[in-house]
Specification:
heterotrimer; A mainly alpha; B mainly alpha; C mainly alpha; B: 16 helices; C: mainly alpha; flat; binds copper (II) ion
Amino acid sequence: MAEAGHSQAPVSSLKHHFDDMEQQQAASTLGMWVFLATEVLFFGGALTVYAVYRLVYPAAFSAASNHLDVRIGAVNTVVLIGSSLTMAIAVWSARRNGPRSTRMLVGSLAMTALLGSVFLAIKATEYSAKLAAGLFPGPAFRFPGAHARPAELFYSLYFVLTGLHALHLAIGIGVVAVVAARAARGRYDLEYHGPVEITGLYWHFVDVVWIFLFPLLYLVGRGG
Amino acid sequence: MSAESYLASPRGVRSWLLTTDHKRIAILYLVSVTLFFFLGSAFAVAIRLELLTPAGDAVQADTYGRLFTMHGVVMIFFFLIPAIPTVLGNFLVPMMIGARDLAFPRLNLLSWYVYVLGASISLWAIVHGGVDTGWTFYTPFSTTYSNGAVVTTGIGVFITGFSSILTGLNFIVTIHRMRAPGLGWYRLPLFIWAHYATSLMMVLGTPVIAMTLLLVVAERALGLGIFDPARGGDPILFQHLFWFYSHPAVYIMVLPAMGVISELVTAFAKKNIFGYRFVAWASIAIAVLGFFVWGHHMFVSGQSAYAGMVFSALSFLVAVPSAIKVFNWTATLYRGSVSFRTPMLYAFGFIGLFTIGGLTGLFLSALGLDVHVHDTYFVVAHFHYIMVGGTIMAFLGGLHYWWPKISGSSYPEGWARFSALVIFVGFNLTFFPQFLLGYLGMPRRYHAYPPELQVLNVMSSAGASILGVGYLIPMVYLFWSMRYGARVAANPWGASGLEWTTPSPPPTCNFETTPVVTQDPYTYSSEEAQVVG
Amino acid sequence: MAPAHPSPSIYVAVFMTLVGLTALTVWAASAHLGAWSGVIALSIATTKATLVVLYFMHVRYGERFIAVVAVAGAFWLAILVVFVLADVLTRSWLPILVR
Ligand SMILES: [Cu+2]
């Protein structure tokens, strides 16, 4: 594999320091996975705080969680899982040649970004309802009943976790939009589709984070 | 591809600021971490000045709190953690594995800009009053009571963390995917193993402190309640999250240093490393075990006694791989033809001082003894033996060893040996008395102390002045050598390793043709066999 | 490399399963399961996440080392959570020390 380095592959897709496309693709996939491992630990810091307080204040966390709307959370979960499905199909079609799969790629990427935006829109209405109800931590925090102070911890974590998740999703939508625009110009094919693939990995990761946030935030102590 | 040196072409400031060449980025980092090293040193000078006399006279308690905080923040986050990986690692990782660059050159440049951004924000915070929380940012002081620029500094450190993550990510992928043909894992230089292990810790530990600082900022700036005891929060939880990163951070500082020492010891003893696989896997063992011991910083802070016992026992365990390394370096030197050139002097300094630092670390990981010396100068002396005696010694040793490769010129050996000696003497005079001070009960982070401790404190301050001079000398002659030093050949030390097979300084593409590796590292054995047989 | 990738029909099947598991976890949360409800919710979430990682993220079809990276992330998080809880949950065990 050594000297051949600079020839063969399509013009600008192969960076000069890689030997071949396969090496470049393998590097970017591994790079994204290492980044996602980092992300696990990033969210993990806040999830650890959550784990401690939930075990120390179980009743307060139930009470606080019951002020969230399970239906909104569940609908958003399905929306995000749906976006993962379209993303998976996008990656699948990126690996094939021909105008039909290009159309499929662009379409499924657009669908992915759209579903991501729907999630954020729903989240935004949910946020404004919580803010209106006085559930944003700080001096204005209002919580009925006996558990006001630990409930404030719960809502602090709620806003940190869902806020960071939403931020990740917003970044994801932006990236998907850029990739879709490039895909429309026929940039990706069987030979070169790395950006679609690693964007997909990132998108699915954001989905996985929500898969955990949903039960941790919305489903605490519903059965009493 | 042109064979012109990476330093010579292309020319112009723009070509440097937009470079994606790992060697040039290493130089950018060298300049920036050196600046921060001297800034951190300036704070140290102020601290040692104040401690010349028992009374708190030169500065007020509040100012003193800011001085040691900024000394710690600058030295740890902006010098010690990035120093070896981003300078020597950046320069050498691709060269040692026969690659043309790191896997993600643009990400590499981005990591430097992220570092500069984080550092600038922290500098801004320093100029605007500074921070007084200690580099540890303990809650609830940092979130509720401190009147320093906690939020700005926190954001600065948070951002710099991403620079570290990007570097670690780049190294991991590069070492996995970019090795030259024939370069199997057990043929990698130990420097590479050490950097791989370091990268693991950067990638898995740094995000936790990023989140932790973010939570502190959210609590202080937005009024969220995370660690706030008034709302039922647990300040000790902050310490857990902080030390989950910050204990491994000690190894982020010292593991690359160990990698440097493995190269120096083999090159100047002209021998293969003793027990290659043990040294290699010891790096990985340190990286993994290093994540299981953080609670030894919290023995007296209200942590459960059971957790304390477990963390104490595990802390002893992590000493084993470090000890393996020290044993193997010593065994490598045994009956080697050791030449006492400057880099080797630093390596000797490292081995001795790191051993003292490591052994006193065992004092501190012993639950009972730690209660006695916790938060005293004993701890301060201990970690300076590791960080200054270990990391900075190795950084300087490595910088001298690879300087001919980096700059293409040689430095004045006499001056270099002299300054190595000055640094060693100055270091010990500065920090050994601090062990005694700590054992006598002098607490850290106070600007005044009882008069009977003055003699030891004066010794320490005197040592610090010697140390300061020792650090300035290499600054001067390394700069001087770039212009006036004699040009050097590809392999001035007669060392093994792919980085010595290419011209000094190397061409932009590192290797004219991708090298094919056919032998193990440290093949000094043929020479040695001739001598013996 | 270039391993065989799953076809869209597998993706749709995974999607249906994920939706089903979402419904299941909502139902289980409202059932009176007491202390177990948290464990069950987490188990279902872990199952869902595993499906996403294995199929949507191709870990089942890719090289082994990618799986190692994925597991490493989870394992390091487990270190953090387990050791922090080891402290928090045992703090009250020695009342003498607390006093
Ligand atoms: Cu430690």
